[in-house]
Amino acid sequence: MHIVNPEFVIEDNVDGMEMLRNIEKYGRTCYKSEDKVSDNSALSFVEMILKRGHESVLEHEKVTVRIICDRGVTHEIVRHRIASYSQESTRYCNYSKDKFGNEISVVSPCFFGEQSADRKYRVWKQAMENAEKSYFELLSLGASPQEARSVLPNSLKTEIVMTMNLREWRHFFRLRTSTLAHPQMREVAEPLLKEFRKRIPIIFDGL
After folding, report:
1. How far apart are CA 64 and CA 45, in angstroms?
2. Are residues 90 and 75 in contact, defined by beta-carbon separation less than 8 angstroms?
3. Which helix (H) or strand (E) holds 4?
4. Which of 8, 10, 80, 106 could crosslink 155 through cysteines, CB 3.0-4.6 Å?
């Protein structure tokens, strides 16, 4: 069994200023103010539409992200409706194969300490090892991966590629970086939001 930490990869070559210029170009159609476009007007235009709540213009631009996390987190991610998803399938992935290292991978829970003295962590780890043992035993008895997956845990590592427009990313971050969000969701969403702020001016400030 392999224990991993969550991570993400932004799949697009994000040019934040180009996105803002496109948003300005599309948004000015509403006001027929294309004549006001200048080299430096995109920032102020996007600030203006955000203040007015004219967020539909943000839907013209999108970002695709690959997230590696546990399956419990992805059950929450896919509740965001305005998005496209491609996820590692436990129906077709056979973790007894060499390309998976002949083992399952699980995501270490951030709320349990990884010290041998932390009994909760030890109980979790034992449960993961038991799940792996049962999964491989079912496969050895002739079960297909889609049948054997019934014993795999929520902590199973998975990869999900998600594409959202910028308006939906704003909604995603509002919900998933909240103190009310699940700790493992925040573990992914908070550093991802910081990266969005670095790459795309204005739009994710203040979230």
Report:
1. 24
2. no
3. strand 2-4
4. 106
Residue 161 phi/psi, 5° resolution?
-100, 125
In a domain, 35, yes or no: no
Measured between alpha carbons, how far is 205 from 130 in angstroms, rounded to an integer?
44
Q: Are 90 and 98 spatial neighbours (Cβ–Cβ below 8 Å)?
A: no
Q: Which residues are catalytic?
A: 176
Distance (Å, rounded) from C-alpha 169 to C-alpha 181?
16
Q: Give the containing element (helix H, strand E) for 169.
A: helix 166-176
Indicate which CATH number applies to the domain containing 67: 3.30.1360.170
Q: What digits encode the pLDDT tens for the residues 119-164?
A: 999 999 999 999 999 999 999 999 999 999 999 999 999 999 999 9
Two tokens, residue 130: 């038991």
Residue-wise pLDDT for 49-66, tens only, equals 999 999 999 999 999 999
Q: Which two tokens stand for residue 147?
A: 């049948």
In a domain, 37, yes or no: no
Domain count, the chain: 1
Quote the tokens at residue 106.
């699980």
Task: State which residues form the domain around 171.
Answer: 1-14+62-201
Please check whether residue 147 lies inside any domain of the structure: yes
